[in-house]
Amino acid sequence: MKKIEAIIRKSKFSDVKKALHDVEVNFFSYWDVTGVGNEKQGHVYRGISYSTAEIQRRYLSIVVNEDFVQTTIDAIIKSAATENVGDGKIFILPVDEAFRIRTGEKGKGSLN
To answer: What element of type H or E holds 6?
Structure first.
């Protein structure tokens, strides 16, 4: 099992959620987060200058079986990419074990 952590633009969240459901990744958690990126210049929107030093993003946490790792990554990249700086990052971590609290089931079956 692997844990996939993705940091994406908030504006792309609905596209990513749909893409994950389309590849049958139906359970994940997410949070609104603020981070600091490499882009330091300010932007002007409708005559108002604002800083991009602190960036609002959405953080996704997804645990999948080994056979869904690449499918999940591909779905996130395809649906989250704008080809602009700040599209986000994906991190993959090992998961030693998982348990379903309701039944006590453990291992790969606990993720279904």
So the answer is: strand 2-9
* Chain center to CA of 106: 24
pLDDT tens string 20-68: 999 999 999 999 998 876 665 666 667 776 665 677 899 999 999 999 9
* Domains within the chain, CATH numbers bracketed: 2-32+58-111 (3.30.70.120)
Length of the chain: 112
Tell me the whole-structure pTM to 2 decimals: 0.83
CA gap 3, 95 in Å, rounded: 6
Does 77 score more than 90 pLDDT?
yes
The span from the CA of 34 to the CA of 3, in Å, is: 21
